[in-house]
Amino acid sequence: MKIIDLLTKIDRRIIYLILFTVVTLPIIFPSAKSVRVMPPVEKLYNAIDNVPEEKALIIDFDYDPQTLPEIEPMAFAILRHAFRKRIKVLALSLYVQPLGLAQNALVNVAEEFNNVAMTREDSIIYGRDYVFLGWQPPPLIPILGMGESIVNVYKNDYYGNRTDTLPLMKEVKNYADVGLLVSLSSGDPPKWWVEYAQNRFGIKVGAGITAVSASEFYPYLQTGQFSGLMVGMKGAAEYEEQVETELNIRVRRKASESLPSLTYAHVVIIIFIVIGNTGYVISRRTKGGRP
Amino acid sequence: MTFIILASIFALVPPTAVRAYDTPDDRGGAITIEWQLSADDAQLQRYEIYRSENGIDYEKIGLIGRGRNQIEDDTEDNKQYIYKVAAVVDSVRAFSEPSSTVMSSAQWLNRKKINIIIAVIVFGGLILFFIQHARRGRELFVREIAGLHAIDDAVGRATEMGRPILYCPGIGYIEDIATIASLNILGEVAKKCGQYETKLINPHFDPIVYTVAREIVKESYTNVGRPDAFDPDSVYYVTDSQFAYAAAVDGIMLRERPATNFLVGWFRAESLILAETGASTGAIQIAGTDQVSQLPFFVTACDYTLIGEELYAASAYISREPLLLGAIKGEDWGKVIIGAVLIAGSIIGLLTVFPIMSVFD
Amino acid sequence: MKRNFPLLLVFVFGILGIIPFILPHPMVQNTDEFLRNNLLKILAAFALILGLGSLLRVHFDKIRRKGQNWEYSWVLIGTFVVTSIIGLFGGVSGTGILPTRLGSFAFDIWTIYFNIEVPLGAAMFALLSFFMASAAYRAFRARSTEATLLLASAFVVMLGVLPLGNEISPHLPSFAQWIMDVPNVAGQRGILFGVALGMLATALKIILGIERSWLGGGGE
Fold first, then answer.
1. B2-95 CATH fold
2. DSSP characters for B97-121?
C-alpha cells in the first residue's frame, strides 16, 4: 500500500520543485544545439524567400509578454531574413499590447544590420526598408480595410508620420502589393487573416504560433491556406537554424538555447506519468482489477 | 558590335493580346489588365502599364516584374479607359497594341460567394424545417449531455455545503458564440441560485459581456420570484488582461472556496491555470468551450466537459424548448449531409485511377 | 416593446452583418464600414466606462464594509488611480504634460508596462508548465484501450517535437509530424464542422429571435 501511495500520491510541490530545477539549470548554463528543420518551417522560409522584389512582407505582431519567449525569437529570425534579402517589411499589430514588443524587435534587428553596414544602401532605413504601421481598433478594420488601401486604414504610422509621405508606402498600396503576410500570434489572428484577408483578397498567409495552439492550426497548413507554419519554441529554433545555415547570419539563438529546458521538462513530465501509471496498474492488480 | 547590340534591343518584342476588363465581383473602382508575355520576357527588366482616357495621351500607372501578366488598376467608375503595356529594358520600351475601351463599375453580387450562399440556405433551411417540425408538437430526442445534466447536482452541492458557486464565462467578447452560449447557461444557473439562495460569484473579462450578464442574472432572479436576493456586486468586471483575469479568478477560488466552478465560454492559455487551481480546492468543476486547443486541459482537470457544439446546445437542452431542440436536429442533419459529401468525394477521388472518372474533372 | 425592440435591433444588425460578405457594392460596404468603424468603437468605449465603474464600486463597497481582505482593495484602487493619471497625462514615453522622470528613474506608462505588467503576465503564463505537470501526473491514466492509445500518442508527439526525439530515432519526428498532420487534423476537423454548424444555428436562432435567453428571459 505504501508503495502505491508513493507512486500515485506524490505531493505536487515535489513535482514543482523537480520541474523548476530541470528548467532553470539549462538557462543558467545555456548551450544552443542544431535542430532538424521540419517541412512546415521550411515552407515558411521558402515563402518569405520567394516574396517578389516589388512586393512587401507584412508581419503582424500579435504576441504578448506571456508568450514572448516562444514567439519573439520567430520575429527576430524573420526580420533578419527579410532585412538580409532586402524584402520590404510592413509591421502592424491588431492589439495594443504587442506594440512595444513589435517596436523592440524592429529597432533591435535594424540596429544589428546598421552596426555592420558600410553605406546608406546597406543600412536598414525606416520609411524606405520598413514601416511600423501601429494599431487600429477593432481587429477586423485593418484586416478588411488594407485590401482597398493601407494608407486609408493607417493614416499615420506608429511614430505619428503621415503614411502617404513614406517612400515605402508609395510602392505598397494594398494587398495586391503584398507578397506574404506572416501572423505571429498567441491567439486567433492567423485564422482571421485567412478567413477575411485571404478569402476576400487572395493574399498568402503564414503563421508563427504557440505550441499549445498547434493542433487547431494544422488543418490550415494541410489545406494550403497557410504557406508555412512555425510552432512554439522548436519552430522558432528551426527558423533560426535555417537563417543561420542559408544566410550565414550568426547571432545568439535564444529559441535554440531554450530547447534543453524544454527537453528536460518534457522528460520529467513523461517520467511522472509513467510513475503514476505504474502505481495505478499495481493498485488495480492489488484490488483485483477494480479501478 | 555596338550596332548588333543596338539592333537586338530595338527589336524588343512587345507583349500582345492586352485585355482590360472590369474587375469582377468587387465594389468598383478597379480594372484588371492581362496580356501575353513578350517573347523577350527573360531579358526584360519589367513591364510598365500605361493608361489613357482619350486614346491619345497615356500616363504610366504601374509596373510589374517579368514573368507576370496581370495587374489591377484603381480607377473611377463609369469613366472610359484604354491601356497599353510596355516591355522595358533600360530606356527602351516596346509598346503593345492598345486594349479596347473599358469602364469599371460596382457589382451587386460577389459570384465567388454563391457556393456559400447555397450552403447557408441549405443548412439554414434544414434548421428552420426542424423548428417548424417541433412547433407541430413532435417529440425530439436529444442524447444525454453529462455536463448539463450535472448542473442541478452541482448547484445543490454548493447549497448544502453553504459555499458559493463561481461562474467564469471566459475571456471572449460578446460577438463570440461561445460567450453567448455561456450567458445562456449563466441564466439557468442564476435561476437555481435564486431559488436556493446560493451565493453566485461571476467575474468578467469584457465590459460589454459584464453589462449583458448583469441584466441576465438580475432577470433570472426576478423570474423565480426572488428579485430581492439579487446582489448587484455578484456580477462584476475585473480586467481585460488575460493573465491578470486568471490571477483574479484563482484568488477568488482560493479565498472564497466555491463548492462548484463553472468554466464555460471562450478560453485560451489560462484555462489550465483556472481548472487546476479549482481542482486543488476540491470544487466540482463543469467546463465547456469551443476552443479545441483548450479542451484537453478541461477534460484532464474538470469533472464534466462540454465539447464544442454541446456548449451551443446547452440552452435547448436545459430549457427543453421544442423550437430550440428543433435547431439541434437541423444541425445534426447538416452534419449528415457534410459526412455524406465527404465520403462520396473520397470515393470519387480514389476512383480517379479509372479513365471514366475524368468526367469529374 | 421592451422585448421587441432589442429583438428587432438584433434582426436588423444581424442581417446587416451577413449582407456585406455577399454584396460588394459600395452602398453596402460603406454602411458596413460605418457600423464597424464608428458604432462599434462608441459602444466599446461606453461599455468600458460601465465596467470600470462596476470594478471601483465593488472595491469601495468592500472597503466601506471592511470585508475580507479589504486592504487589498485599497491597493487596487490606488494603482488604478496612479496608472490612469500617468497614462492620461504623462504621455507614452514621458512626453506628456505630467513629468514622469526623476533623474534617470522613469515612471512613464511604458516603464510601468514593461517592468510590472510584462513580468507579472510572464510569471502567470509560466505557471502553466507546473500545472501541466501536476495535471498530467494526476489525470493521465491508462484506464482503457483508448486511453492507452492516447497516452502512447502523447509520448510519441512529446518526444518527437524535441531534438531528443531525433536522437532516439530519426523516424520519431516524422511519425510525430504524421500524428499531428493526419489523426489530429481528422479529429480537429470533426469538431470544427460541428462547431461551425453550431455557430450557424446559434446565430440564426438569435437573429430570428428564437433564442432569447440573452435578453434575460426564457425562449418564448
1. Immunoglobulin-like (2.60.40)
2. -----B-B---S--GGGHHHHHHHH
